[in-house]
Specification:
This protein is of the alpha+beta class. The protein has one domain. The longest helix is centred in the last third of the chain and has 16 residues. The relative contact order is 0.28.
Length: 90
């Protein structure tokens, strides 16, 4: 049996999209699983300054996602796994 199926954990994905050539603001996205089958999700997006790679206020989005998880599951996740696309110039 897979040990990861026995514990309560959530996956979180974070990425930022840029259209700097056009001088447009960047858009950051945050998504988090809400159930053990990874079929329900919490998501949020935010507009950031042109070319800003580091997501501002990530702690606010993390807290909201954890509160939603607790409300739905009546338990906090034991482990949180964060996937973040590479931070770079492009």
């Amino acid at each position: 049996m897979n040990i990861m199926l026995c514990i309560k954990y959530k996956k979180i994905g974070i990425d930022v999209y840029h259209k700097t050539i056009a001088g447009k603001n960047s858009c950051a996205a945050f998504i988090a699983s809400m159930d053990d089958k990874f079929s329900k999700f919490y998501s949020s997006t935010m507009i950031q300054a042109v070319g800003q790679e580091i997501m501002k206020n990530v702690s606010i989005h993390m807290e909201k996602a954890i509160r939603c998880y607790l409300l739905q599951n009546k338990v906090l996740p034991e482990t949180i796994i964060v996937y973040r696309d590479g931070v770079g110039e492009s």
